[in-house]
Amino acid sequence: MSFESVTPARYARFMPQRYRLEANYCAKCDLHHFPPRQICKCGNKELETRTLPDEGEVLTYTIIHTPGSQFSDERPFAIGIIELATGARITAQIADTPFDEIEIGMRVKIEFRRIQTVGEAGVLAYGYKVVSM
Amino acid sequence: MTDVGIVGYGASIPRRRIKVEEIAKVWGADAESYKKGLMLTEKSVPGIDQDTVTLSVEASKRAIKRAGIDPVKIGAVYIGSESHPYAVKPSGTIVAEAIGAVPECHCADFEFACKAGSEGMFVVYSEVMAGTIEYGLAIGADTSQGAPGDALEYSASAGAAAFIFGTKDICAVCTHTYSFMTDTPDFWRREHQHYPQHAGRYTGEPAYFKHTLGAARGIMKLSGYTPDDIDWYIGHQPNGKFPLRAGKMLGFPKEKLDPGWLVPKLGNTYSGASPIGLTSTLDIAQPGQRILMVSYGSGSGSDAFIFEVTDHINEIRDLAEHTLHQLEYKPIYLDYGNYAKYRRKILKNT
Ligand SMILES: [Zn+2]
Fold it and tell me: What are the structural domain ranges in chain A?
């Protein structure tokens, strides 16, 4: 999820998912869609807005040594795929955790963090990361 | 009159720390004399991705967990800080959006040096009392900086505390409030300056002590309580010494300060200082006990509150991470180079 071209309008549109982890849930399939989508793969359009749980499990991860220039102050850092609820997997930075403590299956929790700052004068982009617990 | 008080509370403390020795080494200063003079050994440092807004959101999420309420019912969000991330644009709107309190919500950012957090508490208390809102959220948060090499650099740290006030399922009833303030130029920062100026010794007697003692004595007179009637005292904590000395002058033994006296390992969290001390005191307080909290903000003024803890505290305190746990959980120690990078003290070509 890149903030490379953060315009205020685009940034605001993603707030429900990036600030509050709002997903769409299909009761027929017992499946969460994140990022949210309007129609489930079963064809159901009656999806319910649900906030994902703020704890989950690391499914896999990698260490990034050469990120895009907007993230260079943070390198190296860990990125993981985290399962929060049935079907709901997010990609997020694993912050505040020494690399040798990170492992598959590790429990993590969501924290609200600053994701990117656009230059010296642009908008501050906030969103989620995960930390060990 | 309906009881109004705290229905949920929470703190947020970053995991990064720097030790006094590490700062002193760079400036050729004597670490031992700073440690003794300030009565602190280390301080918290925000990550590169943490600021007043992110710490406020985390503290608020803990307060909401303890309150067990739908955040949509929060009718006011106030953040007191002197390190709002934007020069122009409220911090409170970001926090309100992140916790899901929008759009039917009143919102403002408060500033009054280190007293900004208790100002928000004062206002939401009054609004709930007046019946204009059902719940109100007040936050004190800072990620403050001292100029490199200045005495403030050894203490200026980061943290946040959040309180939800309401009338139902109260864990600490607010029984009295009192404010004491005068115009006192002890600490300031002019527009476009990176770091604040302070008036050295003048920050003590005529500033911190006059207002802290004035507010504490004022609220005790108002309530008719003596230090014997109060179980816990929390003062503002710019260093370890000031709150201890004020507590002693007021007649509180050190045991009554201990749960809220976090500065030796936390540093000075500015607007977060006495509010974070209140959260760690609520973490251990027993039903029926009374808590006196006195904030201090340069400029200068103090807000005082007396809270009476209810039985409900036992049901909610373990619903979120305790404050002391956050202070002690796996700290990440930084060297000065990384600290300078994290606090953006290094000038880079852009
Ligand atoms: Zn479906």
Answer: 8-132
Size of interface A-B (CB pairs under 8 A): 52
| Chain B nearest-CA residue for A98 | B332
- Angle (CA) A61-A66-A68 rounded to 5° is 100
Q: Are B262 and B323 in contact (CB under 8 A)?
A: yes
- Give me the helices (H) in chain B, please: 20-27, 31-38, 52-67, 92-99, 116-130, 210-223, 241-250, 263-266, 273-282, 313-316, 323-328, 336-342
Domain topology for B1-345:
Peroxisomal Thiolase; Chain A, domain 1 (3.40.47)
User: Rounded distance, CA B272 to CA A88, Å?
Assistant: 35
- Please give the residue of chain A at the shortest CA–CA distance from B65: A54
Residue B318 main-chain phi, psi, to 5 deg: -90, 10
pLDDT of residue B350: 56
**How far is the C-alpha of B336 from the C-alpha of B25, rounded, in Å?**
9
Cα separation, B31 vs B120, in Å, equals: 36
Residues of B serving a catalytic function are 82, 114, 236
The CA-atom distances, in angstroms, between B19 and each of A25, A39, B143 are: 47, 53, 17
Q: Which residue has the tokens 């816990």?
A: B232
For the segment B126-181, what is each residue's pLDDT rounded down to a tens digit?
999 999 999 999 999 999 888 888 889 999 999 999 999 999 999 999 999 999 99
Q: What does DSSP say about strands B158-166 and B172-181: parallel, antiparallel, or unpaired? A: unpaired
Q: Record the pTM.
A: 0.96
ipTM: 0.94
State the residue for tokens 């700073």. B34
Q: Is B111 on the interface with A (CB under 8 A)?
A: no
Question: Do residues B37 and B24 make contact, with C-beta atoms less than 8 angstroms apart?
Answer: no
Q: Are B76 and B95 in contact (CB under 8 A)?
A: no
Element holding A17 (H helix, E strand): helix A15-20
Query: Which of B317, B325, B307 minimizes the C-alpha distance to B233?
Result: B307
Residues 6+ apart with CB under 8 A from B48: A73, A74, A114, B341, B342
Which of B94, B98, B341 is nearest residue A73 as measured by Cβ atoms?
A: B341
Residues B11/B44, Cβ–Cβ less than 8 Å: no
Domain map of chain B by residue range?
1-345
Distance (Å) of CA A94 to CA A78, A79, A102, A133, B310:
5, 6, 8, 11, 39
Task: Residue count of chain B, please give it.
Answer: 350
